[in-house]
What we know:
Blueprint: H1 19-31, E1 69-70, H2 72-88, E2 100-104, E3 108-109, H3 117-133, E4 137-139, H4 144-148, E5 152-161, E6 173-182, E7 187-196, H5 207-211, E8 214-215, H6 219-230, H7 239-242, H8 245-259, H9 263-274, H10 282-294, H11 298-315, E9 317-320, H12 335-338, H13 341-355, E10 358-364, H14 371-392, E11 400-406, E12 427-432
Parallel strand pairs: 1-7, 2-4, 2-5, 3-5, 10-11
Antiparallel strand pairs: 5-6, 6-7, 8-9, 9-12, 10-12
Amino acid sequence: MWKSRNHPRGRWGSRRLEAVALVALLCACQAAPDAAIEHQPIASTAVPTAAAATVAVPAKPKPITEFPVLPLEEAVLSAANEVFSKAALTLPDATGEHRRALAIDPLIDAATSAQLVATHTMQDLIVRLVSVRYPQLEVRPFTQGTLAQLPLLLIGTLTAIDGEGMPATTRDSYRVWLTLIDMRAGKIIAKARARARSDTVDAAPTPNFRDSPAWSDDPAGKAYVETCHQGKVGESPPAAFVNQLPTETLITNAVDAYDNGRYQEALVAYREARDLPGGAQLRVYNGIYLSNLRLGRESAAEQAFGDVVDYGLQRGHLAVKLLFKPGSTAFWPDPTVSGSYPMWLRQIAQRTAEEASCLEIRGHTSRTGPEPLNERLALLRAEQIKRRLEFEQPTLTNRTIASGVGSRENLVGTGTDDAVDALDRRVEFVALGC
């Protein structure tokens, strides 16, 4: 797997922010006109009156280009304050006897559905903010037990956007988007956006997502992003999102265990998630593979990677992070990076042959360098993989084609050529009718 600087974090993260410093930052955000995004006053801790039970929702959302571009911490605090202020009128008093539980379904990158160092930072800030400013709320772990209490559920995304505020890999800044759902009422009760400076965002994926060998546009990730971005205040969240929440709690536990080196615990949690409704998703198969690999169970790991391939072939598409030397068709020489590649290619060839599938093999590159050269290099790499598959399974000789995409379909777009944008240098296997 790709080796990068590790960022160990617990369920709520390990970043420590002194309460006094945070309060000072909050006050600064409230005082400065450009540090608040449609900011509403912090609600009083007194019991709300019946007349204040409804919150007006703007008919038209504010264009993202009108939002000031802030450091990530200020953007997150601004959006979180807006969300909780809007929701405060429906919350109980702050006596501690009637506090509402608040759970956070881990925040993700909207383009890849991965957790990043930055999304963990966002979550840390929100948890600390609630403890300092919102005594009506009690943050609890995102578990099945907490879901049974019908808590408030916060979801959120971080999205690279261009100068016009549209999702893009050529980034101008990042959009922070938070959505709060009242699980008891079954309604979305508040939403907020803010804009963060790119140079304050650490887009490195956390260990589980950094190490995962394959990527696909999973339905679970799409349901999360669509609920966060398209769900409207006062409406119910989509059933596709709500129904997967029990499974998501197990996946969250598994990811946390893997990130903190508890690989046996991660394996157990991933297997439990796989057997639940909606558990047959790529994150789970990736996790079972990674956990077995870390535990030294090579045979079980190979079988698990075969399940990853089967999942992709059944869905018609699988992207695998096969990393090459810069400007070359040779794999990255570090065995900790490319040591498993022969097994991966063996499984891809074998499973494709068994399925009697045909494949288009698409090479991708990062955006470093001129695009015509990137397209040529991507094609040469795809042709190299094509030859490797045909060597493993000669029956594939007339069933594969190679193409080069270059950097036109980057998902990350940083051009850093390291663990951050490894997904941009992927090789995709697209199932075709023979």
